[in-house]
């Protein structure tokens, strides 16, 4: 009797019922694999790259942040809660065209609000997810910058 067990990446290990303590490696059969990416995935990647190239989350105005959050939402990258968190007014007296570090400000606000108990569990999750999205945009933006 033979029992096959897959061990992560690599060949399966074959055990015989007579020698369970002495595994023998079976020869790996390699086949060429073809992977195709759907047009929807290609479009999503293109849309993500376009958004990342248009907006620098470390130097963005409130008006741009709202436009970016709308594009992220319409592209299916964030939900409505995250759209609101990202596009929320920066202050009561905001200048919609003044550039700010949106990601840095959101991180500081999140830390202060979470430490003071000012956010519900759902709000924390939405805000943290919005910050993660902005961090990913920042990485993509940085990677797309000419050297």
TrEMBL record:
Origin: domain of life: Bacteria
Region annotation Disordered: where it falls in the sequence: 1-27
Biased composition (Polar residues): 1-22
Name by which UniProt lists this protein: Uncharacterized protein
Organism annotation: Pseudoalteromonas peptidolytica F12-50-A1
């Amino acid at each position: 009797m033979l029992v096959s067990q897959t061990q992560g990446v690599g060949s399966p290990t074959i055990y015989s019922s007579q020698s369970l303590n002495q595994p023998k490696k079976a020869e790996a059969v390699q086949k060429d694999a073809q992977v195709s990416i759907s047009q929807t995935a290609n479009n999503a990647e293109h849309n993500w790259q376009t958004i990342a190239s248009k907006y620098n989350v470390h130097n963005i105005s409130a008006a741009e942040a709202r436009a970016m959050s709308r594009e992220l939402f319409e592209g299916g990258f964030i939900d409505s809660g995250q759209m609101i968190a990202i596009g929320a007014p920066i202050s009561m007296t905001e200048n919609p065209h003044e550039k700010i570090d949106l990601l840095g400000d959101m991180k500081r606000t999140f830390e202060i609000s979470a430490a003071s108990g000012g956010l519900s569990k759902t709000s924390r999750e939405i805000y943290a997810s919005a910050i993660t999205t902005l961090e990913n945009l920042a990485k993509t933006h940085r990677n797309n910058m000419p050297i």
